[in-house]
Amino acid sequence: MAVRVGMVSLGCPKNLVDAETMLYDLREAGYEIVPDAALADIVIVNTCGFIESAKQEAIDTILEFCTLKDEGRIKAVAVTGCLAERYKEEILSEIPEVNAVVGIGKNSDICDVVKRLSQGESGIMTFEDKDKLCIEGRRIVSTDHYAYLKIAEGCSNCCTYCAIPSIRGKLRSRSIESVVAEAKWLAKAGVSEIILVAQDTTNYGFDLYGEPRLAKLLEELCKIDGIRWIRTLYCYPERITDELLDVMAREDKIVNYLDIPMQHCNGDILKAMNRKGDNASLRALVEKIRAKIPDITLRTTLIAGFPGETQEQFEELCRFVKDMRFDKLGCFTYSAEEGTAAEKMPDQIDFKTKEERCDEIMNEQMLISYELNEKKIGNTYEVVCEGFDKYAECFFGRGRADAPEIDGKIFFSSASGKKYRPGEYVNVTIDDVLDYDLIGTVND
Q: Is residue 213 situated within a structural domain?
């Protein structure tokens, strides 16, 4: 009887791609992959360790499966991903119930680790240089009709608040040929939407070609039959070029959606973050993007309570949010991460103040999002069905303006009572707004 392996992947889509690659290797090695990790013999927790909340979620998940192991329901627990890479010795010493800790540079050895665990071995620690993490190859796509496509790994930006370079290493891009080959494979497997991810997608290719090549990559991806939507996440503002915007405006397959993690608008705070730009340049960028692509959906992320952020600088950020009226926005409280330059900065802000500032921005954005969504009532949008909500008794999906997991949904029903399957594209006329979500009807 085959050993049953379950995987729980936490954190960002880039981490999910790593998990899918490991699952493919395990399946090819003859292990049975079970969708419910609680029913497995061996559980792999692929962790995130980016900020404090992500670390806590990872620890809670590890402890949950260690409890199942103590109860005799599973046999072993292995920890992979960013938390494993960042806290090598601490995991086994502080959570001795864990049977194996695998660094990201050893993901390719996951089959050997599972074999050793199935034979009763424990206390396994295996690590290698971060650059050894394979960023291409086959995987089990766990996301049905859409798939994340990792175009690069690591980051060389060295933002002062960010631990990613120390966890994932410097920027390492895949070749255009490699990315296109995987996209073709995904299309043949039935994937109709590909979502490009990296720590900084707009810096893609710089290490290989001496200049960013995201625009060129997008042009090549648009030639692939079977791909209907192409979406790009994590675009740094200073690298959004006219060439990139022109390609987006020209190619219908590229959804008019940009995810731009600005983090702040005040020039002094951005400089302290080791980020480029200021209030004026960011406003000019937003104006240029909207001029070139009038129906663009803009998403950004911000950090509230960075060390030294004054009340005046925070109020400047609030005015920026009100004026820019982003379609989507996420705000996070600053998290002092071990080993980062910002952790050692003076004038750290207390947790309560950070929370209050974050809440103020999110409350303002909620009003903006609702007002923008109200303007969509009466319009018709192309929507990909993602399932049926038995409680709402209707189908739900996403439009071109919605990235999976992070953005809202469009709930819809059919005027004729027709049923839809996940991955099917339909035209939905919007009838109403529900918080961040939309409600509509298919007139078929």
A: yes
Which residue in this structure is represented by tokens 């620690």?
125
Give the CATH number for residue 411. Answer: 2.40.50.140
Q: Are residues 362 and 384 in the same domain?
A: no
Mean pLDDT within 215-226: 98
In angstroms, the CA 212 to CA 83 distance is 30
pLDDT band at 144 (very low <50, low <70, confident <90, very high): confident
Q: Is the dihedral of CA 409, 415, 420, 424 positive or negative?
A: negative
CA 351 to CA 53: how far, in whole Å?
Answer: 13
Band (353; pLDDT cuts 50, 70, 90): very high
141 in any annotated domain: no
Q: In the structure encoding, which two tokens stand for residue 177, read together? A: 């040929």
200 with 336, same domain? Answer: yes
Q: Read off the pLDDT of residues 11-66 as tens digits, 9 standing for 90 and up.
A: 999 999 999 999 999 999 999 999 999 999 999 999 998 778 888 999 999 999 99
Average pLDDT value over all residues in the chain: 96
Residue 139 lies in a domain: no
Would the pTM of this model clear 0.90, i.e. be above it? yes
Please give the backbone phi and psi of residue 385, each rounded to the nearest 5 degrees, phi first.
-70, 135
Asked if 302 and 153 sit in the same domain, the reply is yes
Given this model, what pLDDT does residue 284 score?
A: 98
